[in-house]
Each structure stands twice: as C-alpha cells, then as structure tokens.
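Hi V.,

You were right to ask for the full record rather than a summary. Here it is.
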Amino acid sequence: MKFFSPDLNHTGNAKTMTDTAQSPKPQKPQKPWIGPRGRIGVIIPSTNIGVEHDCQQIIPQGITWHFARFFIEVRNLSSDASFLAFVEAIQKTIPLAVRDVVTAEVDHVMMGMSAETFWGGVDGNTAFHDRVTDIMGPGIKLTTGADAAVAALNKFGARKIAVLTPYQPVADDQVRAFFTESGFDIVRLVGLKSDTANSIAHTPESQVLDVVVNKLDGDDVDAIVQVGTNLSTLPLFPALEKQLGKPVLGINVALIWHALRAIGVTDKFYGKGRLLAEF
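Predicted structure:
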C-alpha cells in the first residue's frame, strides 16, 4: 500500500516570492539542553495508549520521547473486512504525523504501530521505510516493529517462535508471512481478535497470561513474541521469562530497545525484560 501524498511542506501552503524574500537567513541550530543524548520521535495511532505507557517506564538519562498521533477514523476491527478498511484509512494520516514530529528536531523516529510494518512481508517493511524516509528527509533513521522484532530475536539466536497478536486472521497472515520470510519458523500463533482499536489496550492480563503459558509455550519454541503496540505486556513479560526460561518479547520493549541502540544509547535496564538487561 502507498501513502496518500498531501502537500507536506511545513506551512501547508506553497511558498510565494514574498515569503522567500522576507525569510531570515538560516542559522545553525544549537543543541538544546532537553534530550542532550537524543530525542526520539514516536509515531502512534490516535487510539493508542500502550506505547506512551511503556516509553514512560524506560527513559535513560538525557533521552526524551516526543509523540505524534495519526488519526484513527476506522476503529472497528471486528472482522477481516473492517481490519482492511482500518489499514487503508491510516495511509492518509501517517504521513502527517511523520511530517509534524520531525519539526521537533528529533534524532530518530520510532513507528509505534506494528501491523503496518508487517504488511506485505519483508518487502512491505522495506517499502514502508522508503515512504517514511521520503517524508523525514535525509539524516533521520527509522525503527519499525518489524525491524525491532527481527533484531531482538536474532540477539537471542531464536528460530522457532510462537506469536501473540491482538489481530484478526487477515493481519495474522501478514505477521506469519513476515516472520517466515525473515527466516523464522512460527510453531504457533494466537490472534486475540480484538474488536476495536481501543479495546486492544483493555485486554485482560489474565487472558494474556493464559494464552502465553497454556497455548503458545512449549519445548518446541525458542522464544515468544507479542505484536500489536496497544497491548502493553511490559508488566507481565519479565516475570514470564523467568517462569518459562526463554525470551518473551513484547513489541514495545523491542521497539524501545532498537531505537535506543540505533542512536548509540547502550544503557541497560533491569526488571524490564532480558532484552534491555542483556543487550
């Protein structure tokens, strides 16, 4: 899928000769004291509360998170057809959020929605990178959920995985295709079929625990991965890793880890899961 292409100049209007003549001479920007080690722009759906919650739990000294929301008009996700309509609708609103957040002079951008980055498999994630980079301009790199999940799994040397999603089957198929193309064997996948974009965040913790322990885990699985960024599993997964004796990776933690490492921040966090503590 391709983004809708609105006029993405900073004012929203074409520049006139008068505007150009009256523009002040550009000055070299000075580094502010806010975020001296790095400022990370985070693009999130307007319905998403999970990403902000998790980012606010993991803030290295001198790092700041800067959030930009893209409007979610289609919030019904109760069927494959409605999920496809949701994916189609966000093509028009994601570029606007990207345009806006880079004006904060961020050093890196993190895409706080994972479904879009799995769509179309490995080539789809690459195409997403290209579209967003065209908007951001040179000098700013991007972290996607697809990038982060693969990089995290590779750190642990995992190949046989089980996957938890909040999605409908049409999106689960995209997740399955992406991981398979990336060289992983999906032993099991469970989609929770959340009925709205908002209700993903309301998934009971007891349901997540039950699915991970009783439906996904097994001796034939090297690691367990959860996708869908509005489903915060940060309070649950560190303890599950100890219980199950293997990596249990939440997509938000993987995104945060990947974005921090991408700008050279190597601080380790304990009690937030093995990924942030070991790598």
